[in-house]
Design goal:
The protein is about 40% helix and about 10% strand. It contains 19 helices and 6 strands. The radius of gyration is 22 Å and the shape is globular. Monomer.
Amino acid sequence: MTVLHTVRVHPSADNLPREEQLAWKMAEVAADPVEVTPEVTEMVINRILDNASVAIASLDRGPIVSARDQALAHAATPGGTGSALFGVHPGERKVSPEWAAWANGVAVRELDYHDTFLAAEYSHPGDNIPPILAVAQHAGASGADLVRGIATGYELQVDLVKSICLHKHKIDHVAHLGPSAAAGIGTLLGLDVPTIFHAIGQGLHTTTATRQSRKGEISTWKAHAPAFAGKMAVEAVDRAMRGQTSPTPIYEGEDGVIAWLLDGPGACYEVPLPAPGEAKRAILDTYTKEHSAEYQAQAWIDLARKLHRERPELADPSRIERIVLHTSHHTHYVIGSGAGDPQKYDPAATRETLDHSIPYIFTVALQDGAWHHVDSYAPERAGRPDTVSLWHKVTTAEDAEWTRRYHSLDPQEKAFGGRAEIVLSDGSTVVEEIAVADAHPLGARPFAREQYVAKLRTLAEGIVEDAELDRFIAAAENLTSLGAGELDALNVTAARTLRTGTKGVF
């Protein structure tokens, strides 16, 4: 039975006992030896496959090259056997775990193409996997250990995302990732509650940053931000294991995160956490992406593809007066025209910016009837005159009902789509709506193992040899059978030499 924990600011004079602090309660969840259910184990495997697919597709992109080069400059430390990097054979080179978390985290996030959970806050819970896996490989853990650690990471991030909004205060969502990844590593290593408590506190303290990385001209740091949180989580656990303590209370203190970065001294949150002995099932509430675009664009891509098939004339800007996408508050203000970002309508904008522009994404999907993780963002695609003309006729509007459904706690009602109202030049209108993406568990074509494997094979084509891909898939699908020290099997080696970038400090 899930327990709601009331979290509010306390003056230092209260001397709030650690046992009453949110970080301690989270640590208790992480240290709870409850068994992982078969359904959760299966979904952990799906997400390991999913992360690998998007990381492989990114191996030669600039941010990954940079992060990998940095990681390769940091050899494995004496405390373990080292951690593997996506694309690099572990027998050839392994690195220190915090740097593997960094490089692999960037690879997983670069295309914005892995899993998501949206509630009071945004998140990509799959960002927990790179740091937890890196430590698992370095420490010689087993597949069962890894599953337990990942289940914790997902559980705590989802629980925080359900209850504590960060973006309202312009704090980046990775502030929920530092604590969840630290807790997941704690579960993996079988650490005690006090140690995990301090790792969570340090993980939060070092990963609070502003949302400017996802505003205006979006830079390559967007992919680095969660990787940095994962790297900080590894370092936080290392310090905590060495007896180093954290700012306390990190959430509830009068100079803490809630008081000064979030809702302020009068704030009160209700955070749901599993009761003692309750299975960690939150990963089952999350969903992955069929398309390489911000999650709130997934359903709109599917609707645009449908309209392309049924009403091909809508792709012609001369036939269109205007297109208004009525949607949730979050979609309108984060990736829609409500953001007020002129860059969202700029043909010369970065890929990262276009990935967060629903007017652009809807336009291209409407014209092409498809979405591709590279071609749909190509400069020549963004700059096509007919695309630019139609793109500038697309706006978004907040709709109270879609906002309500976005925040609904009922999975059957929760929705991330909206209603498209298209006014043609002749005065006629086309109105269509969609609630969830086709790949969503409640969508037209829900993702299952078959779709995860297909996504992996598609994105790995020409990058990884078939035999190597088959080996990796078999290892992932037999995850709980992997013994201590066998987790290097979860790395994937590229079929060619990976490129290197410009020299830095390291």
